[in-house]
Specification:
Blueprint: E1 3-12, E2 15-25, E3 30-34, H1 41-49, E4 56-61, E5 64-68, E6 73-74, E7 82-86, H2 97-107, H3 114-124, H4 140-152, E8 158-162, H5 170-187, E9 190-195, H6 198-204, E10 207-212, E11 215-220, H7 222-227, H8 232-237, E12 242-251, E13 254-258, E14 264-266, E15 280-285, E16 290-293, E17 301-310, E18 315-321, E19 327-332, E20 341-346, E21 352-355, E22 360-362
Parallel strand pairs: 3-9, 3-10, 7-8, 8-9
Antiparallel strand pairs: 1-2, 1-4, 4-5, 5-6, 10-11, 12-13, 12-15, 13-14, 15-21, 16-20, 17-18, 17-20, 18-19, 21-22
Helix pairs in contact: 2-3, 2-4, 3-4
Protein name: Carnitine transport ATP-binding protein OpuCA
Domain ABC transporter: 3-238
Enzyme class: translocase
């Protein structure tokens, strides 16, 4: 089911939680609302689900008008054909797994379907043998699966999820992430998933909607949001890397980012757009775009290691550029130590440039 939001606004007293929001989600897409705490993502999810009412705007599910403030239309949550999963599992402790999943069906008067629908939902989350157990007899991951089964038992066309995995440990989060992805695709639902965890968003989503301060900053595929952030806010929030500010300078036909009076970094050769000398730029440099070594060479820039993190298949190294306090991040195959002198160059063809007014000029390769 397609979802279209037009001019959605919401305030709580003097706090404007959502500024005019326009958003379109395609049928069958898995969409992550990503942003820091307080950015408005949960409020937006609750408005789509009918748990909050917007102050202005309208919402359509395909050709069905769900909410229109001007026309005083507001379809109740139970009639929106949605399922909801939250961080709090919200299971009835005195009910069995079967009864918890059946609760919504019974409330809708679908008693004749209960046995088949509950059995199907539990099978989809791999809990078919746990129907007679009580929530306290289940692990955290199993309890979350019950909550998911309850959400899908009513055959929703849309499933809304508000940080459903944040209470689980890392291993369970990975297992549940895979389960949710496959389940949403198998059942053909449109999914909206709220998270502040960029790893979850990058690995799960077809589309990421980055939010900040009640606004949508960017919507796009994980690849586009990572490689071509449209503004500095997105660049700093999504993905590891350095976001450097400096002045565009040119010498001997080569473009540079002047960080200070003695430090400059080479920039990509621009084929279509020229920056005026002195233009203030923001440059996004990801770890994979830096080649780092301990071996000195005249063609390499120098830096000093600040921190080293072992990630199994690689080391993540942060280091400062000599003559500057700017911190860069790179991946290395060999262990380094804080204080080590290192040498590096940057794959200038793939770094991303944002002019200070927010316009993008260089596409990521």
């Amino acid at each position: 089911m397609d979802i279209a939001l037009h001019g959605i606004e919401k305030s709580f007293g003097k706090l404007q939680a959502l500024k005019p929001i326009d958003l379109h989600i395609n049928n069958g897409d898995f969409v992550c609302l990503l942003g820091p705490s307080g950015c408005g993502k949960t409020t937006l999810l609750r408005i789509i689900g009918g748990l909050e009412n917007a102050d202005e705007g309208r919402i359509q599910f395909s050709d069905r008008l769900i909410f229109d403030q001007a026309k005083k239309i507001n379809v109740q949550p139970q009639k929106r054909k949605i399922g909801m999963v939250f961080q709090d599992f919200a299971l009835w402790p005195h009910m069995t797994v079967f009864e918890n999943v059946a609760y919504g069906l019974r409330a809708q008067g679908r008693k004749a379907e209960v046995k088949d629908k509950v059995s199907e939902a539990l099978a989809n989350v791999q809990l078919g043998e746990h129907a007679k157990r009580y929530p306290h007899q289940l692990s955290g991951g199993q309890q979350q699966r019950v909550a998911i089964a309850r959400a899908i038992a009513n055959d929703p066309e849309i499933i809304l999820m508000d940080e459903p995995l944040s209470a689980l440990d890392a291993t369970l989060r990975d297992e549940m992430r895979i389960l949710l992805q496959s389940l949403v695709k198998k059942l053909g639902m449109t999914a909206i998933y709220v998270t502040h965890d960029q790893h979850e968003a990058m690995t799960m989503a077809d589309q990421i909607v980055v939010m900040n301060d009640g606004n949508i900053m960017q919507q796009g595929s994980p690849e586009d949001v990572y490689r071509e952030p449209e503004n500095e806010t997105v660049a700093r929030f999504v993905g590891k890397g350095a976001v450097l500010e400096g002045m565009h300078r040119q010498a001997d036909g080569i473009d540079y980012l002047q960080l200070n009076h003695q430090t400059r970094l080479p920039l990509p050769q621009k084929e279509h757009v020229d920056f005026a000398d002195g233009t203030m730029l923001t440059v996004v440099i990801r770890p994979e775009q830096i080649n780092l070594t301990k071996a000195p060479a005249e063609t390499l820039l120098a830096g000093t290691v600040k921190t080293v993190s072992f990630l199994g298949e690689k080391y993540e190294v942060s280091f400062t550029v000599d003559g500057s306090d700017e911190l860069l991040f790179a991946n290395a195959k060999e262990r380094m130590a804080p204080g080590d002198q290192v040498y590096f160059n940057i794959d200038t063809k793939s770094i991303h440039i944002i002019e200070k007014d927010g316009m993008n000029y260089v596409e990521t390769a």
